[in-house]
């Protein structure tokens, strides 16, 4: 028996990976993260699968479901939104499984920031403009940030920032980033990325907070701030440069020397 932590993707049911869908289809138990996981995915479970909405369960109750399935010899699909590697709370579940001697595996998924970039039709890393993406959040009462990871510190890098779980605090985000990025720095907010009710807001640090509040966005959104969002004057990458030395391809003989 194995617990499979599966990234369900950012919202659209067809953005789950092939591996994730196949794993889901053969697990006798499915624990899913409430409304954050598209309901259509549950139809992929076996007809007699036990379906458990974990939205109202605490960590002890979730662990008890894992252990019960383990004792019954049933594989478990643990569906999380986005990708399990960031802001998913799988680390604490894995720690409990290690202590209980329950085996587990991880199936990656499409993260929210990737879906947001797709909605914006932007590459987040652009040659000579920005090659670094920082995924972060802001401190809240329940979960403080570690020392040195506050926005003021991260903002000094000038790198493109992607903030999760921060739309409700957009005024604070803007206030902390303005000194480092400037009022004209491009900013965007994508709510419900990849879903039918997806909302895309584009602007600058000067006006993005006003847009967010006018649209009533408070959750299920990412904030993106950085110069690559509007970059159009930049050098082509070396990857496809005609001057790049490429290994010989027997199917495509090299042309005449320049």
From TrEMBL:
GO terms for biological process: methylation. PROSITE patterns: SUMT_1, SUMT_2. Residues 2-208 form the Tetrapyrrole methylase domain. Pfam families: TP_methylase (PF00590). CDD domains: Precorrin-4_C11-MT. Keywords: Cobalamin biosynthesis, Methyltransferase, Transferase. It comes from the Bacteria. Pathway: Cofactor biosynthesis; adenosylcobalamin biosynthesis. Its EC number is 2.1.1.133. InterPro entries: 4pyrrol_Mease, Cbl_synth_CobM/CibF, Siro_Cobalamin_biosynth, Uropor_MeTrfase_CS. The keyword Transferase applies. Residues 238-258 are annotated as: Disordered. One of its GO terms (molecular function) is precorrin-4 C11-methyltransferase activity. It is an enzyme of class 2 (transferase). Belongs to the precorrin methyltransferase family. NCBIfam families: cobM_cbiF (TIGR01465). This is Precorrin-4 C(11)-methyltransferase. It comes from Streptomyces niphimycinicus. The gene is cobM.
């Amino acid at each position: 028996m194995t617990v499979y932590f599966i990234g369900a993707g950012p919202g659209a049911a067809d953005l789950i990976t092939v591996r994730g869908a196949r794993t889901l289809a053969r697990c006798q138990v499915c624990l899913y993260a409430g409304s954050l996981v598209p309901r259509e995915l549950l139809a992929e479970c076996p007809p007699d699968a036990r379906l458990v909405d974990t939205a109202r369960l605490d960590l002890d109750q979730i662990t008890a479901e894992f252990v019960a399935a383990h004792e019954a010899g049933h594989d478990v699909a643990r569906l999380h939104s986005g990708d399990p590697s960031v802001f998913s709370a799988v680390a604490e579940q894995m720690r409990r499984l290690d202590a209980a001697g329950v085996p587990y595996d991880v199936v990656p998924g499409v993260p929210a920031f990737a879906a947001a970039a797709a909605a914006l039709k932007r590459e987040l890393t652009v040659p000579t403009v920005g090659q670094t993406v920082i995924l972060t959040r802001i401190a809240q009462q329940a979960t403080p940030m570690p020392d040195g990871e506050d926005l003021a510190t991260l903002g000094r890098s000038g790198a493109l920032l992607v903030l999760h779980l921060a739309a409700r605090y957009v005024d604070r985000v803007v206030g902390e980033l303005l000194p480092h990025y400037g009022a004209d720095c491009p900013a965007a907010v994508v709510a419900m990325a990849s879903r039918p009710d997806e909302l895309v807001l584009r602007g600058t640090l000067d006006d993005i907070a006003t847009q967010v509040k006018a649209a009533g966005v408070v959750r299920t959104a990412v904030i993106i701030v950085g110069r690559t969002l509007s970059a159009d004057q930049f050098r082509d990458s070396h990857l496809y440069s005609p001057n790049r030395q490429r290994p010989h391809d027997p199917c495509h003989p090299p042309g005449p020397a320049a």
